[in-house]
Design brief:
Blueprint lengths: L5 H35 L38 E6 L11 E10 L5 E4 L7 E4 L5 H7 L7 E6 L20 E11 L1 H28 L1
Length: about 210
């Protein structure tokens, strides 16, 4: 077996030390560059992030004016202007309707109430609202949109309604009929609910007696 000479062992040791030094130096350089890059990186400006939002999102309508509004000084009778003719069920007296609406003073266009502010539609019986609504909505169909110009006599008359609707104020409503439930449908639904409740009560009573 050949013997390794002392000078060969020293040379190999030097090579090993040099390899370790160069490896350490290279690793240190990589780490230093990562630190530098992280330090130089600019934080993301949230104002520059592109987001798809409505410019009017969150803006409350109440107290503002209707867009593209022309003041109406006099409303002698109920007037309706179709924005979109509905193709669904007709609204009839006694029906229950679900609507989106925005109400404003006809003379100024100032909005006093809007379902769009809450994001919740309004549901009510057609015989439980002002006559201008009862008569005006009866001319529409499900899916229809219209402007209702309502004289004060068919609204709140000489009494008014709070600070926003003074006595003898003519009103303007933008209305969309979202759904229509006829009186007959409502009666059938209520009857079905009543029978379902009775069946449930009988089932619970039977289960209690078995125990």
């Amino acid at each position: 077996m050949a013997k390794t000479r002392p000078h060969q062992r020293v040379f190999a040791l030097i090579l090993a030390v040099l390899f370790f030094v160069f490896s350490f130096a290279a690793s240190f350089a990589v780490i230093a560059q990562l630190i530098k890059d992280n330090r130089d990186a600019k934080p993301v400006d949230s104002n520059t992030v592109s987001t798809k939002t409505d410019s009017n999102s969150g803006k409350k309508l109440e107290g503002t004016k209707l867009e593209n509004f022309t003041p109406v000084s006099s409303v002698d009778s109920l007037q309706t202007t179709d924005i979109k003719v509905g193709d669904g069920q007709e609204v009839k007296a006694g029906d229950t309707v679900t609507v989106d609406y925005t109400g404003a003073v006809a003379a100024t266009g100032v909005i006093f109430q809007s379902s769009l502010d809450t994001g919740q539609t309004a549901t009510f019986g057609l015989d439980s609202v002002i006559k201008g609504w009862t008569d005006g909505l009866s001319l529409l169909k499900k899916g229809g949109k219209a402007k209702l110009y309502i004289p004060s006599a068919l609204a709140y008359g000489s009494q008014g309604a709070g600070a926003d609707i003074k006595p003898n104020t003519n009103l303007l409503f933008d209305v969309e009929v979202v759904d229509v439930l006829s009186a007959a449908q409502e009666m059938a639904d209520n009857e079905a609910k009543r029978k379902a409740m009775e069946s449930m009560q009988k089932a619970q009573s039977g289960a209690t007696e078995k125990k």
